[in-house]
Amino acid sequence: MLTGIRIVVLGGDARQLEVIRKCVDMDATVSVVGFDQLEEPLRGASRESLSVKLLESADALVLPVVGCDEEGNVNALFGAQKLQFLNEHAAALPPHCVVYTGMARTYLKEICARHDLKLVELLERDDVAIYNSIPTAEGALMMAIQHTDFTIHGANCVVLGMGRTGFTMARALQGLGARVKVGVRRAEDAARAVEMGWKPFMTRDLADETQGVDLIFNTIPSMIITAQILSKLPQSTVIIDLASAPGGCDFRFAEKRGITAMLAPGLPGIVAPKTAGAIIANTLVQLLMEDNPDRGMRNELARENGRLCNYRLTLHI
């Protein structure tokens, strides 16, 4: 349990609602900021305004998946007022307070370092990223179906990158009967692709793999689908870039050529906010309980994340 732990949730979207519910259920004292326009009541949590006094007693500060921009602005989907996490707020946090977010930009990293605050980026954890790859793949499939006039079954699909998201994406396409090629950078990834029944190629040879491609799913966060590559692709190719912004595709040249190319980061929060929020919530609570001797509870939280994502891929179009 989280009895006696004070958690401040600052801004966010529907995913944070699951975090709030989970923390309340675990008996934490939860204060929320930036939820004043939310119609449904937040049972067990108190709505507050951002202030130095509020943060002085916090044991944990929970920011949105993308913590804040380079000026400290915090996204608050359910809030009417602008939220900014400033130097005075970081200074007010107790030394033991931990700041949690999905991914941190330079501003947040620097302000936490300046005040010697521990910063945890949840999306950098392998377990969270792997769980999140499932709604990401579902969302990418949804977008592919919406923007094509052919079935994925039998389509020539290329997945660039065989990391946590790329692996799940390739497996989902294979399950729907697509012909799957995977662009990899390491020999061991090529071997794993062969074992999975996919055709591997080295990403440096992408220009040689463009013939007849129907769909490209990119997970590599650097420029890989260049103008040179785009000039060789069929005009009917659809590109779905799942890498973090600005992605790995020359979108300007793609538009010039008439190729449909879409940057689609953050799909878990768009297509499955309840599941994505529960994944974050379970991991957050697990981290907060690291000093709790009740190992059984921590293991149960890990199992719950597994149950959330242990289902057959389904499409909700």
Short account of what is shown:
The protein has 317 residues and is an alpha/beta fold. The protein contains twelve helices and 14 strands. The two termini are 39 Å apart.
Describe the fold and architecture.
The structure is a single chain. By secondary structure, the protein is α/β, with parallel strands linked by helices. 38% of the residues lie in helices and 18% in strands. It has twelve helices and 14 strands. The strands form three sheets. Strands 3-2-1-4-7-8 form a six-stranded parallel sheet, with helices on both faces. The chain has a six-stranded parallel sheet with strand order 11-10-9-12-13-14. Helix 9 links the parallel strand 13 and strand 14. Helix 1 packs across helix 11 (273-288), helix 5 runs antiparallel to helix 11 and helix 11 (273-288) packs antiparallel against helix 12. The longest helix is centred in the middle third of the chain and has 21 residues, at 126-146. The relative contact order is 0.13.
List the topology elements.
Layout: E1 6-10, H1 14-25, E2 29-33, E3 45-48, H2 52-55, E4 60-62, E5 73-74, E6 83-84, H3 87-92, E7 98-101, H4 106-114, E8 118-121, H5 126-146, E9 156-160, H6 164-175, E10 179-184, H7 187-196, E11 199-202, E12 215-218, H8 227-230, E13 238-241, H9 251-257, E14 260-263, H10 267-271, H11 273-288, H12 295-309
Parallel strand pairs: 1-2, 1-4, 2-3, 4-7, 7-8, 9-10, 9-12, 10-11, 12-13, 13-14
Antiparallel strand pairs: 5-6
